[in-house]
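Methods — Computational structure assignment.
A single polypeptide chain was analysed. Its primary sequence is given first, followed by the predicted tertiary structure written as C-alpha cells.
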Amino acid sequence: MVGINGTIDLEAALVRCGEGDRKALRLLYDHEAGRMIAVAQRMLKRRALAEEAVHDSFISIWNTASRYDPARGAARSWMYTILRNRTLNILRGEARSELTADFDAFEQESLEDTPEEIISKLSEANALRRCLERLDASRRRLVLMAYAHGLSHGELAARLDVPLGTVKSWLRRSLLSLRECLQ
C-alpha cells in the first residue's frame, strides 16, 4: 500500500479496507483526513461541522469500501464523493434524528436556560418530559444541548471535552432510549 518513495496506493488501501483491514483505513485517514477537513470546511464554513462530516465519511468509507471498484474510478474521487454527499446533507439541514415529537416547547428557549429549566417548562403530562427525566442527568443534558440549543456533534464534543465518536454514541443511545420510552 505504501510505495518505494513513500507514496500511498489509495486504491490498494481502499480494497484492503473493504476486506476489513483496519490498518488500511487508518492509512487512508492519516493520508486524506487533513485535506478532507479543509474541503468540508470550505463548504460548511465551520470547523466542527467539517470534522463531523469527515468522521461520518470515514464511517461510510469503512462500511462501503467493499463496493469500491478501481476499474470505475480513482479511490480519491470515490472518497471525496462520499465527503461531498455528506457535506451537502449537512448543508440541507439533515435531521440528526427522527425523534421530533414534542420539541415545540424548546423553540423559545435561549442558551442561558439550563437543561433543568427547559424540562421544568414542559407540562407535567408531556410524555417527552417523563422520558427525558428517566435519562441519566449527563445524557439528558447532552440531548437538550443538541436539540434545544441546536449544537452540532462537533460542538458538543468540544464543550464536553470528549471525542466526537463518544458524543455520537452517547446521543444515539439516549435517543434510542427516548424513542423506546415514547412508544
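Note: Confidence is low (pLDDT under 50) at residues 94-111.
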